[in-house]
Amino acid sequence: MSEDFKEQLRKYSEGSLPEDERAEVERELEKLEAYQVYLDELMEQEVQQTPQRFIEKRIIRRGKWKARFANTFTVLAFVLAFTVISTIITAVFYNSGDRVDRYRDVLISAVAVSRPNISLNLNANGKFFFRMEYSGRLMKQIGSEQVDVGSYSSKFLLGLGGIGNYSWTDQQSGNTGSFIFYHPQAAQSTGGQRSDAQEWERLEMLPEGTVAEAYLSLDRLYSTDELLKKLELLNVLPVWFAVDGGLAADERSFSTLGFPYQPLWHAEDMTVRENSSEKWGWFGKVTSSTSSSPSVESYGSAELREQNFIETLQLLQKYKTITRNAAPFLKVEESLSYVEEHGIHLYGVVITGPVKELLKLQEDSWVSNIRIGEVRLWNWRD
């Protein structure tokens, strides 16, 4: 407020203000009164509207959080429902038709026929979302004992097996199968085999109180019965036989095919001796059975062993994808066709036993080449 207007208000209150100025001051006062009234109205409206705006904001905020919770609950409910449904489907799929055991059988068989003296012990572990994982230990027969040489795992999505993952404890165990056996026909075409003098020297330097694994190449193709008769005379344990699968000469050193001394019995080979069932819960029951495998002579039953090998290849052929992922270098179809047409002929064998017994083979003409594998302290039982 200016000083002049204050002076006019003082004179207006004393009554000494001229008439024209008096009228002007009254008009200004009327304006001020109108301003005050308008200001009071605005303030009253703001007071009335502020709670309403606050309530509206609270409602909007609450609606947003409700929508967020609803969306989150919907997603969680969908994930939970999908998990439950997928778990049920996974259990039904793998347990129907004995798929769990069948896939395990395929993996074990693929490793056994493609990797000399390697056996696989597998466990199945069901997962969510149609998955199954097989994992286990890779074992070798050295002397009278089974030796742990690594691990194997494979992940399945329904019936699709993943690439097999091998983890070896040492480089030598993982390299079995390459440049171990020499086929007699391949040797003839190349003018002879590689010298094994260093292998015999290594064997001679080993202490007498040790056992070793030996890969023997043969001077010709043998029938299973012929080779078993020769091995019967030795104080060693045969563990794996290399089979001529009809591969080209340059492929025989890189790929091996064969069967273990102990046959790979499958579900179809077992004879059920006894069945029993036990009530479980209100409506379920647990069924168990006792079964036995065919009897095999220690150094005989050649026909039974060969038939078991052919059936194993037929199983691997039926599950090509699983077999290829477990044993990528194994040519099942070509090998199966060849042995079915030409019969089973052996050109190599893996044996294990005391070093002193292995040294005796140096004088045997039927052994054309030797490669020494794993060596362990004495664990032999005659």
The gist of it:
This protein has eleven helices and twelve strands.
Please describe the topology of this protein.
Layout lengths: L2 H12 L4 H77 L3 H16 L4 E8 L4 E12 L2 E13 L2 E2 L3 E4 L2 H4 L9 H6 L7 H9 L4 E13 L1 H9 L4 E7 L14 E3 L10 E10 L3 E9 L9 H17 L1 H7 L5 H11 L3 E9 H5 L7 E11 L5
Antiparallel strand pairs: 1-2, 2-3, 3-4, 3-5, 6-11, 6-12, 7-8, 7-11, 9-10
Helix pairs in contact: 3-9, 8-10
Describe the structure in your own words.
With 382 residues, the protein is α+β, with helices and mostly antiparallel strands. 45% of the residues lie in helices and 26% in strands. The chain is built from 11 helices and 12 strands. It has helices at 3-14, 19-95, 99-114, 171-174, 184-189, 197-205, 224-232, 302-318, 320-326, 332-342, 355-359, and strands at 119-126, 131-142, 145-157, 160-161, 165-168, 210-222, 237-243, 258-260, 271-280, 284-292, 346-354, 367-377. The strands form 3 sheets. Strands 1, 2, 3, 4 and 5 form a 5-stranded antiparallel beta sheet that branches. A 5-stranded antiparallel beta sheet has the order 8-7-11-6-12. Strands 9-10 form a two-stranded antiparallel ribbon. A hairpin with a 2-residue loop joins β3 and β4. It is rod-shaped and about 150 Å long.
Characteristic key phrases:
382 residues; five-stranded antiparallel beta sheet
The percentage of residues in β strands lies in: 25-35%
Tell me the span between the first and last alpha carbons: 125 Å
Low-confidence stretches: none
Treating each run of at least 4 consecutive H or I residues as one helix, how many helices? 11
Please tell me what the overall shape is: rod-shaped
Number of strands: 12
Mind telling me the C-alpha Rg?
44 Å
Counting helices, strands and paired strands, the structural category is alpha+beta
Q: What's the overall average pLDDT, rounded?
A: 80
What is the helix fraction of residues, given as a range?
40-55%
- SSE string, helices as H and strands as E: HHHEEEEEHHHEHEEEEHHHEHE
